[in-house]
TrEMBL record:
Residues carrying the site annotation Interaction with DNA substrate: H274
EC assignment: 3.1.11.2
Domain Endonuclease/exonuclease/phosphatase: 12-274
Example of a GO MF term: DNA-(apurinic or apyrimidinic site) endonuclease activity
Enzyme class: hydrolase
Stated name of the protein: exodeoxyribonuclease III
GO cellular component term, pick one: nucleus
Cofactor note: Probably binds two magnesium or manganese ions per subunit.
InterPro entries: AP_endonuc_1, Endo/exonu/phosph_ase_sf, Endo/exonuclease/phosphatase
Site (Important for catalytic activity): D247
Reactions performed catalytically: Exonucleolytic cleavage in the 3'- to 5'-direction to yield nucleoside 5'-phosphates
Active-site residues annotated for this sequence: Y124, D162 (proton donor/acceptor), H274 (proton acceptor)
Organism: Mytilus edulis (Blue mussel)
């Protein structure tokens, strides 16, 4: 079977460990079903070994970045796992990485119908006060910026993950940028006038200022708070001391019109204190699929003591799916002006 794929669903989620109070999230049908809706996704803070990573039948050959065990507890912390849907795997290449804190993917322009290659960086930037971060002899954002300089010469850039950066509503580009009054380099590109980004998080920290500086220097723009589906900048992290926006998607400014939506999913406290975030990017690729497996509805549903909470969680995920489909339809009818 051959069909044309017009959109890529890309997601990232800090799951705060695959085990929580003896509960294995990887064995939960609702957790897994939520991931199966994506084409490319990254799980952060997996806390797992290679022998207990999540396995999915339609996402073969995932890549896992695993930190060494901490001493003296012997526990795992951090960890990234990146999954690519089998049907698009031939168009994706994992690039060499210098640390286990981030990883780059290259999406081939010919395979996906892009004008240029797309380089996606999935990252988990630990909190500044964590013992792991204090021992690092490098700055993660600076390393990513160096890679951006290299990869931006041959394609566009996306950054996604938990950056532990709070940026409030601060500007991520040069306002009223112009080359009319002072001499500039011939290849200098002026920043476009963009709609004001919004955020329900009014705080900004040092990491946030570093991220905003990276956006300005690298012509990256934050999707949170300015893209259809999240025009108010919803909170992405919920903790006892308060809520915040620390999980982001960033993209090259020229890519913004190609995003159908950006979505902060419903908060599912049984799975994580972070919300899953996702976006849909326009593409044009032909998919060759030998067997189309259609899931059949069960003849009946057997209710038990756990059915109430399972139903409530499934309803949240279903509402997310309905919202995404609605936003996609609205985008087709009324294209967003960037």
């Amino acid at each position: 079977m051959i069909y044309t794929k017009k959109n890529l669903k890309i997601s990232t989620w800090n799951i705060n460990g695959y085990i929580s109070k003896g509960f294995n999230k990887f064995e939960d049908d609702i957790f897994v079903d939520n991931l199966l809706q994506q084409d490319i996704f990254c799980l952060q803070e997996t806390h797992c070994d290679l022998d207990n990573c999540l396995e999915l039948p339609n996402f073969q050959r995932p890549v896992h970045l695993i930190r060494p065990r901490t001493k003296p507890s012997g526990k795992r912390h951090g960890g990234l796992s990146v999954y690519i849907l089998n049907t698009i795997r031939p168009g994706v290449k994992f690039l060499e990485h210098a640390t286990n804190d981030f990883i780059w993917l290259k999406l081939d322009r010919t395979f996906f119908g892009f004008q240029e290659d797309l380089y996606i960086c999935f990252v988990y930037n630990p909190p500044e006060n964590s013992s792991y971060y204090r021992k690092l002899n490098y700055n993660i954002l600076e390393m990513i910026e160096n890679d951006i300089v290299k990869y931006s010469q041959s394609g566009k850039i996306m950054i996604a993950g938990d950056l532990n950066a709070r940026t409030a509503c601060e500007i991520d580009h040069i306002q009223m940028d112009s080359d009319k009054h002072i001499p500039l380099f011939d290849n200098y590109k002026c920043d476009s006038s963009l709609i004001q980004r919004k955020s329900k998080d009014s705080s900004i920290n040092t990491r946030g200022r570093q991220l905003l500086s990276l956006c300005i220097s690298s012509s990256l723009r934050i999707l949170n708070g300015r893209t259809m589906g999240d025009l108010m900048g919803a909170h992405t992290c919920f903790q006892p001391l308060g809520s915040s926006v620390v999980d982001y998607f960033l993209a090259s400014e020229e890519l913004l019109p190609n995003f159908t939506y950006f979505h902060t999913h419903n908060f599912l406290p049984d799975f994580s204190d972070h919300c899953q975030i996702s976006c849909m990017l326009k593409c044009n690729t032909k998919i060759y699929e030998r067997n189309l497996n259609l899931a059949l509805m069960p003849d009946k549903y057997i209710w038990d003591d756990n059915s109430v909470s399972a139903f409530q969680m499934k309803s949240k995920i279903l509402l997310d799916s309905i919202k995404i489909k609605f936003m996609t339809k609205i985008q087709l009818i009324m294209p967003q002006k960037i």
